[in-house]
Amino acid sequence: MSRTEEFQELRPLLFSIAYRILGSVSEAEDAVQETWLRYVDSPTEPRSVKAFLSATVTRLSIDVLRSARVRREAYVGPWFPEPLLADPYEDPARSAELADSVSMAALLLLERLSPLERAVFVLREVFDFGFPEIASAVGRSEAACRQLAVRARRHMTEGRPRFEADRTEREELASRFFDALREGDVTGLQDLLAADASMVGDGGGKSPQLARAVLGADKVARLLASVIAQLALVDATFETHEVNCQPGAIFRDRDGKVLQTLALDVLDGRVQAIRLVGNPDKLGHVGPVADAWAVHRELQQARRDARPTP
């Protein structure tokens, strides 16, 4: 097998490692590309191609994450991971675990960890790497990696909810939720939202977005119904689509360009959190990105036109 073939076979794994460490599709793709260049330039064939490539993409991702942390401190408003529409790495025996590890909720928990803890957790808990491989990847002793894994696992366990939705139950609830959303059914939405449900948006200061988190089933349901009614004025639509392996949707303008993504966090039979990503810098991989400010101005004009004449 050629180096190109070996790399392409492992590429889904490399991207999935990098994305979980970085929370960014574009940065993960860059890390994978740089890994390929280093592999091509390597004068000798590594004993284990998988170990070499995994270690390389992990070290690159750690370095990128350290610099990204500084940028995120100055980020305007809430920061969410770049939405992922499909995880290229598949393992049927562990599909539920892999899906959970890439959810918005899990990635936001990973943000609490140091870059080294995050890398060790991803390699050990998500992809089941052995500690000798992890130690080589992060440049620490096996003993140190075991300690990092324990700390990371503790932080992640403390932050996880006590009840998690069954996949079938989650999908059925999400179907009812999006049906109610299409109809602007406030009562139907309220019935599916947890009492303390929240809706939060990430616009990065580059698109119209919620000024602050909206809290409570009643407020969230009424705002959602209002938003859907207003988007209809400018022929904007949404389509359901998994986002980070969870129920979600993609909102588009009349030309089919992407306005934002929406991801649901379903727990204990209710929608607990709704996360919107509208920062255009995070949507390019989803498709052509709409000018959200132009849509916003058009909407304001449509509202004025709809007002009754005195």
From TrEMBL:
Q: Which family does it belong to?
A: Belongs to the sigma-70 factor family. ECF subfamily.
Query: What name is this protein filed under?
Result: RNA polymerase sigma-70 factor
Presence of keyword Transcription regulation: yes
Does the record bear Cell inner membrane in its keywords? no
Q: Which residue intervals define the domain RNA polymerase sigma factor 70 region 4 type in the entry? A: 105-156
The RNA polymerase sigma-70 region domain is annotated at 7-69
Q: How does it assemble?
A: Interacts transiently with the RNA polymerase catalytic core formed by RpoA, RpoB, RpoC and RpoZ (2 alpha, 1 beta, 1 beta' and 1 omega subunit) to form the RNA polymerase holoenzyme that can initiate transcription.
Q: Which UniProt keywords apply?
A: Sigma factor, Transcription, Transcription regulation
Q: Which InterPro entries match?
A: ECF_Sigma-70_Domain, NTF2-like_dom_sf, RNA_pol_sigma-70_dom, RNA_pol_sigma-70_ECF, RNA_pol_sigma70_r2, RNA_pol_sigma70_r4_t2, RNA_pol_sigma_r2, RNA_pol_sigma_r3/r4-like
